[in-house]
Structure formats: C-alpha cells, structure tokens
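ok trying this again, last paste got cut off
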Amino acid sequence: MTQTQTVYSSEKFQSAEQLWFWFLYSKSIRNNFQYRRAAQTRRPCEILDVETLITKLYLCGKLSDDDLSVMKRFGDKKRAPHQHIWSENRAVAIWEHAMSVLQDAAKKRGWID
C-alpha cells in the first residue's frame, strides 16, 4: 500500500521585517510552549534556518553588536523604531541597515519575494 505525501505550499515573506518578527514570534512559541494559531501560514524556512543565517551574518561582520541589539530591542516591542520619536533616531539608521543586510541574505535563499 502506498502512502500519499501531502505537499504544502509555502508563503514567502514580503520583507526582512516580516521575517524578523515571524522569527521572534515563532521562537517565543517554541521557548514558552505556547500554542500556535490553527491557521498559521507555512513558511519557506524554519526557525533554525533564520537563527543560523543571522549567526552567519554576525560572524562574517555584516551584522554588528549594535545591529543585533536594535533588532532584539524593537523586535521585543513588535515594531520598528520610528524616526519621529527623538530617542529612536539613531536606532532607525541601525534598524534600516540590519534589515537591508537581512533582506539581501534572505532573498538569496528564496525566503523573500
């Protein structure tokens, strides 16, 4: 008897920000054993894939400590820094650089349209 395998189509991310926020959300689910929403979209990569990519970008010097710090800080806030908030002006430039690096690397892997 043959088993049929279900092939799932995956939905690519629209931007590096969407990828980053998905990664943090998915990681929090895994770490906190929270339940996923039933209709969650299947993605073209796994949590470990994104973690590995970010680690490689850091180790080869494309992402700095400042980049990772800003990514984490605003990722926890579930939003990007805003240029019209005076205290976030410096973070905006760092965020844009980090998202640009992540965008380029994720596009090469086919995760972003």
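PB: full thing came through this time. The chain has four helices and no strands.
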